[in-house]
User: Fold this.
Amino acid sequence: MNEQHIHRIFQVGIILKGLHALIECAGGVALYFISTESIVHWVDLLTQEELIEDPDDFVATHLLMVAQHLSVGTETFYAFYLLSHGLVNVALVIGLLRGRLWAYPVSLAVLVAFIAYQGYRYSYTHSIGLMVLTAFDIVIIWLIWHEWRLLRLRRA
Assistant:
């Protein structure tokens, strides 16, 4: 694979990371403004038909269980986590897409820290989604490192 293809993959990966960050920001803001009762109500409405059809549906039962056990403190934590994680990633994505040298090492450090936290959370949740996100972050780390190395060589 030549450097042009790797650079395009880098750009697409960073844009996807940015879109994911914007979704996290929106989710964090929504969690701040939507009450726990409203979340339970909406999850109940969304899963009701599926649970009537199949009372043991894995996704529906787990969504409902998570919503019903959501406390105000937990909701506040997730809102803060999503918003802060999203904002940090948006700032880093902007820096990377603009080719700012500072953004490369900072992005690597932040992503490694996020992966460490995701690994910690995985030990409690065993979430497949968390593992997919971690795998994506590992690929992004490699792409950032590769681009940073090339950028430093070009500027030297």
Notes: The mean pLDDT is 89. The longest helix spans residues 3-33. The chain has one domain: 3-155. Residues 3-155 form one domain.
